Amino acid sequence: MRCAFGVTLGFCLLLFACQKEEERAQPLGNCPPKDPNCAIVPPGGGGGNGGADAGTAGSSGNAGQVGTLTGGIIGVTSDDFVSGVAFVETAKVEADPPGSVAVQGTYDGNSYSLQNLSVGPDVWIGVTPDPGSAFLPTLQPVNTALTSTADLVVVAANVIDEVYGILTLPEARQPDRAHVVVRFLDAKTLTPVSGVVVTHQGENIAYDAGGTWSDITGETGAAGYAVIVNALSQSFTSKQKLTFQAVGVQGSVDLAMRAGAVTLADVAIAK
């Protein structure tokens, strides 16, 4: 299960977590590469228009509009970051606010409901399992302008540990760092893009490599994944810029990160 959500960034469309793969929102169109005047907003897309270096939208919602969001939660248990099981534990669910106070709700092991949250294309939702859970807090954006129902996700801690543990120099998961999982997709076909190079703040980057992970290949493999290992982050949720480049394409996007949490995002790029 993956949700779909997008932000136009010049020629970059940012898609994010939680609905079935076949339900993923399709872009209306794509900006030509390196065209700073292009400002196409696809379904689920919004506000972060501009040149190749534009970030995501500065605001998470449409001013003055509030809505609701309901659904279930899936526990991701594989490093394909798609396979999972129904999450049957309790958790806190928190959303970007329409004002200065975050919108909070609870998940009872079956469903959650958030009321009076922002309506917009890039509303960040955080799921925080109860203490002692085998799953990590997970951040994901949802397009609340298009849907009022979404199955959110939480990622198992041992999935991140597995990725970090098979690198050339294995790293332990640090609780004061973020764990950022990004998949690059072709904006037209929504298929994974190989050959994408990612940078953040000098951290080690793990890339998918033929069914495993490598910090040597230096670019995304056939599955299009890059993982920022123990990303520098704050103790609170904040947006940070992630830069990327591939053949004929370069750009940057802003992702929400928080110490101890997983950020799960799909980035679709037009070449």
How would you describe what is shown here?
This protein is mostly beta strands and 271 residues long. 3% of the residues lie in helices and 42% in strands. It has one helix at residues 157-165, and strands at residues 2-3, 6-9, 12-16, 18-19, 66-71, 73-76, 84-86, 91-95, 103-107, 112-118, 123-129, 135-136, 138-142, 152-156, 178-186, 197-199, 205-209, 212-214, 225-231, 238-246, 249-257, 262-269. The strands form 5 sheets. Strands 2, 3, 8, 9, 11, 13, 15, 17, 18, 19 and 22 form an 11-stranded mixed beta sheet that branches. It has a 4-stranded mixed beta sheet with strand order 7-6-14-12. Strand 20 (238-246) and strand 21 form a beta hairpin. The two termini are 27 Å apart.
SSE pattern: EEEEEEEEEEEEEEHEEEEEEEE
Uncertain residue segments: 1-13, 16-59
Fraction of residues in β-strands: 35-45%
Q: Overall 3D geometry?
A: globular
> How would a crystallographer describe the biggest sheet?
11 strands, mixed
What is the residue-mean pLDDT, rounded to a whole number? 80
H/I helix tally: 1
Oligomer: single chain
Helical residue percent? under 10%
The helix/strand class is mainly beta
Structure keywords:
mainly beta, 271 residues, 11-stranded mixed beta sheet, disordered N terminus, 1 helix, 42% strand
Write the topology of this structure.
Blueprint: E1 2-3, E2 6-9, E3 12-16, E4 18-19, E5 66-71, E6 73-76, E7 84-86, E8 91-95, E9 103-107, E10 112-118, E11 123-129, E12 135-136, E13 138-142, E14 152-156, H1 157-165, E15 178-186, E16 197-199, E17 205-209, E18 212-214, E19 225-231, E20 238-246, E21 249-257, E22 262-269
Parallel strand pairs: 6-14, 13-22, 15-22
Antiparallel strand pairs: 1-4, 2-3, 3-22, 5-10, 6-7, 8-9, 8-11, 11-13, 12-14, 15-19, 16-20, 17-18, 17-19, 20-21
